Amino acid sequence: MLTVDNLSAGYGPVPALDDVSLTAGHGEITAVLGANGAGKTTLLRTISGLVRARSGTVSLDGRPLTGVSTEDLPALGLAHVPEGRGVLAELTVEENLRLGALGSRRKTTAADLRRIYDLFPVLAERGTGLAHVLSGGERQMLVIGRALLSRPKVLLLDEPSLGLAPKVVVQIFELLRGLVRDDGLTVVLVEQNARSALSIADHGVVLNLGKVVVRDDAATLAADDGLRHAYLGF
Amino acid sequence: MVRRHLLLALGALVVVVLVLETTSQFRNAQFAAMAYYAIAAAGLTILTGLNGQLSLGHGALMAVGAYSTALMLQSREGTLPLLVILALATVITVVVGALVGVAAARLHGPYLAGATLALAVAIPGIPLYFSEWLGGEQGLNVRMPEIPVWLADAAYFVTGQELTQIRYLAYLGWLGVIVVFVLLANLSRSRVGRNWQAVRDDEVAAELAGINLGRARVQAFVVSAGCAGLAGGLLALSARLAAPSGFTLTLSLLLLSAVVLGGLGSLVGALVGAALLTFLPQVVTGAGTDLGLTDVQAAQLAPLIYGLVTVLVVLLAPAGLAGGLRKLIHWRRSS
Amino acid sequence: MQQLLTTVLTGVTLGVVYAAFALALVLIWRATRIVNFAQAPMAMITTYIALVLIDAGYSYWLGFAAALLSGLVLGAVVERFVVRFVSGKSEINAVILTLGLFIVLHALAAIVFGSRYRSFPAPFGLRGFQIGDTTIALTGFGVFTVVAVAVVMVGLVLLFRGTDLGLRMRASAFNQEVSRLLGVKVGRMLTLGWALAALVGSLSGLLIAGGGLVHPSYMDGVVVYGFVAAVLGGLDSPVGAVVGGLLLGLSLSLVSGYVGSELVPLAALVILMAVLLLKPGGLFASVRERRV
Ligand SMILES: Nc1ncnc2c1ncn2[C@@H]1O[C@H](COP(=O)(O)OP(=O)(O)O)[C@@H](O)[C@H]1O
Ligand SMILES: [Mg+2]
């Protein structure tokens, strides 16, 4: 379970994140929605310690992450797939995956790789080739697979659907739903594509100008016409 | 602006006369050296500070000016007037600088640094290869022409002292400093200078604003090469010699450190840097020998300090010593 | 024919040393986007450390090992305590910083070790091998040079391709932020990268010095040749650096043999400008354009 309490952060005098609180429950998908520039990426980056929090706390299963460096988070069970995916294109697909396991200070086993290749059969074909040649959808599968190899309790995903064909988005989101159901993974899903995100999420939080404006069940949010028009754009 | 610069120049001229007339021959020689360092550093500060191009090759460009001057002073049957010779040396260096600049304009950052570094290392080999013509390792001796009689008389009339060769050189150097600084100060406030600055700050924006990036860069390089050429000519006259050992990589690096110490882009900073290059060695070498170092070791203390301060300036006060001080004062006041 | 053979053999021997130096520059460039011009005086200092030990009566090999080890330490120290503070900031500041270090190390060496020329021993013969009645330009030390560089390169390949540590180092070089999110201690990897690069640089310093003279400036030319070799190879590619080093060694050896050794640095300048202006991505670049 990931708990964010009264988190504020920013890049200059203007705050990009203003007193945001959020709970992502165990075995649930929490969607973080909002227009471009709302502060969604900043929220994830502050949770990971890439952006310094001005105030507030983040805790993972009750353990405060204050003072924990970004590099130590995977070993504690927090995986963050950044905006733009973060594929290391100069490395092979398999090397990218191995890095995922290394993050939790383990050696990659053959069984690890097989599990990921079973989830994403296209990656198996690409294994020894450079990640450079992957398509957008394949890249998204690679980074999710890589994150899973660190055996996370909490997975932060920043706009996984960006730039993907709708069919691929459905495929990836269904897979995500399956992982949450089967492995009890906790997911924080940042999306501008609110319709798709709400279709698989349990709860949703809407950000605007760095503040939480609404939080509710995914179904309720999806049904609220005023909200959809004002913030979610569908 | 231009008027203010001219007034400043007149004031500077008065100061120069007063200082040079009241100090010893030895000091005069030091001031002559400071003058050519100042001219070279001013050119480099315009290039690096105003236009954002780094050059490790300015020592080599000074060599071009120095050898040109030396060659023009070889003939025993009278030579051109000294001012003409220095002007020609400047022009020759400008031509070489334009060649380098055209190539350099397409490079940035470490690539430009590496290319000009290669230039600095390559140029001293040329006189070695063409040793018949350029004097090889020994270099070319420079025969300082006589001071024109009218000038010597006029100087005596004004100051009541005989104008010595060394003082004459110091005057020549500082005349050069004043002319170069006024020109550069006006240039950097002109449209051309603002274009150079725009190119440094943001290439894309500059290009959108209709500035020709390549032309701006070549212009800046050419101007700064001209300064290096004039400085090289004055150096050859002061040292009475143009030899490869005078234009090693170290010279280029020290010039750069002078510019960094003074604060990139500030002409006053270039003057401060030149003063440090000229006067610091004597001070710290003396201190070094007092501490028991040999002369040879003590002579390395000054470059050690330049290097250390350069590193510290980059780490702590990227605006240079002057800029750093200003910031400190500002910070003290505002807190 | 005889002269051509001599030129080629000299070129290859020199080329591997340039290759090693270029490799040191490339390792650092890839990881921190800094061309470490101070690599030359760093290698000069470590060679002096070897010389002091050898002159004190210790064996060549002890000096050799001490130089490599001190290279490792020096590289780590420079990264951790100096370069760390400019990484990611303006390009021009990083360049000026390495040049400041250049001046500092030069002056320090002259103060501590003196500025005069000192001869540096070689562990193997400096006389060319005899084939029939002709002497060829391949010496025992030349063979050692080639072997030493080859051993180091194989070692680096094994490290980078074959170990988890190497994988972490490569990841940090390509994308620091993503690497941190994957749990890689990027700072440590950078320190280690600089240390390894300085070790390789020290090796080339020792190999250039062997059987010759050292003084505080003796590596100044080598940093230019190493840079040119690295640029020939595209500056980003370790393999390119090695090939670039060999090509440059051969070309410069031709210039030295047929034109004059004084013009070797000028030839290096011409080659550098030709590459930068005609094929900025290096000789082996694909169509991908590169801003130089
Ligand atoms: N590196 C940065 N420097 C300065 N401002 C930034 C930076 N990153 C984001 N911002 C600003 O912070 C706000 C939130 O941005 P971000 O978190 O990226 O929003 P989102 O991910 O919801 O699109 C925006 O106003 C954006 O302009
Ligand atoms: Mg975003």
TrEMBL record, chain A:
<comment type="similarity">
    <text>Belongs to the ABC transporter superfamily.</text>
</comment>
<dbReference type="GO" id="GO:0015658">
    <property type="term" value="F:branched-chain amino acid transmembrane transporter activity"/>
</dbReference>
<keyword id="KW-0029">Amino-acid transport</keyword>
<keyword id="KW-0813">Transport</keyword>
<protein>
    <submittedName>
        <fullName>Branched-chain amino acid transport system ATP-binding protein</fullName>
    </submittedName>
</protein>
<dbReference type="InterPro" id="IPR017871">
    <property type="entry name" value="ABC_transporter-like_CS"/>
</dbReference>
<dbReference type="InterPro" id="IPR027417">
    <property type="entry name" value="P-loop_NTPase"/>
</dbReference>
<dbReference type="Pfam" id="PF00005">
    <property type="entry name" value="ABC_tran"/>
</dbReference>
<feature type="domain" description="ABC transporter">
    <location>
        <begin position="2"/>
        <end position="234"/>
    </location>
</feature>
<dbReference type="GO" id="GO:0005524">
    <property type="term" value="F:ATP binding"/>
</dbReference>
<dbReference type="GO" id="GO:0016887">
    <property type="term" value="F:ATP hydrolysis activity"/>
</dbReference>
<dbReference type="InterPro" id="IPR003439">
    <property type="entry name" value="ABC_transporter-like_ATP-bd"/>
</dbReference>
<dbReference type="InterPro" id="IPR003593">
    <property type="entry name" value="AAA+_ATPase"/>
</dbReference>
<keyword id="KW-0067">ATP-binding</keyword>
<keyword id="KW-0547">Nucleotide-binding</keyword>
From TrEMBL, chain B:
<keyword id="KW-0812">Transmembrane</keyword>
<protein>
    <submittedName>
        <fullName>Branched-chain amino acid transport system permease protein</fullName>
    </submittedName>
</protein>
<feature type="transmembrane region" description="Helical">
    <location>
        <begin position="218"/>
        <end position="239"/>
    </location>
</feature>
<feature type="transmembrane region" description="Helical">
    <location>
        <begin position="6"/>
        <end position="24"/>
    </location>
</feature>
<dbReference type="GO" id="GO:0015658">
    <property type="term" value="F:branched-chain amino acid transmembrane transporter activity"/>
</dbReference>
<feature type="transmembrane region" description="Helical">
    <location>
        <begin position="111"/>
        <end position="130"/>
    </location>
</feature>
<keyword id="KW-1003">Cell membrane</keyword>
<feature type="transmembrane region" description="Helical">
    <location>
        <begin position="31"/>
        <end position="50"/>
    </location>
</feature>
<dbReference type="Pfam" id="PF02653">
    <property type="entry name" value="BPD_transp_2"/>
</dbReference>
<feature type="transmembrane region" description="Helical">
    <location>
        <begin position="80"/>
        <end position="105"/>
    </location>
</feature>
<feature type="transmembrane region" description="Helical">
    <location>
        <begin position="168"/>
        <end position="187"/>
    </location>
</feature>
<keyword id="KW-1133">Transmembrane helix</keyword>
<dbReference type="InterPro" id="IPR043428">
    <property type="entry name" value="LivM-like"/>
</dbReference>
<keyword id="KW-0472">Membrane</keyword>
<feature type="transmembrane region" description="Helical">
    <location>
        <begin position="251"/>
        <end position="284"/>
    </location>
</feature>
Automatic annotation (TrEMBL), chain C:
<protein>
    <submittedName>
        <fullName>Branched-chain amino acid transport system permease protein</fullName>
    </submittedName>
</protein>
<keyword id="KW-0029">Amino-acid transport</keyword>
<dbReference type="GO" id="GO:0022857">
    <property type="term" value="F:transmembrane transporter activity"/>
</dbReference>
<comment type="similarity">
    <text>Belongs to the binding-protein-dependent transport system permease family. LivHM subfamily.</text>
</comment>
<feature type="transmembrane region" description="Helical">
    <location>
        <begin position="60"/>
        <end position="82"/>
    </location>
</feature>
<feature type="transmembrane region" description="Helical">
    <location>
        <begin position="34"/>
        <end position="54"/>
    </location>
</feature>
<feature type="transmembrane region" description="Helical">
    <location>
        <begin position="266"/>
        <end position="287"/>
    </location>
</feature>
<keyword id="KW-1133">Transmembrane helix</keyword>
<feature type="transmembrane region" description="Helical">
    <location>
        <begin position="6"/>
        <end position="27"/>
    </location>
</feature>
<keyword id="KW-0812">Transmembrane</keyword>
<feature type="transmembrane region" description="Helical">
    <location>
        <begin position="189"/>
        <end position="211"/>
    </location>
</feature>
<dbReference type="GO" id="GO:0005886">
    <property type="term" value="C:plasma membrane"/>
</dbReference>
<dbReference type="Pfam" id="PF02653">
    <property type="entry name" value="BPD_transp_2"/>
</dbReference>
<dbReference type="InterPro" id="IPR052157">
    <property type="entry name" value="BCAA_transport_permease"/>
</dbReference>
<feature type="transmembrane region" description="Helical">
    <location>
        <begin position="135"/>
        <end position="160"/>
    </location>
</feature>
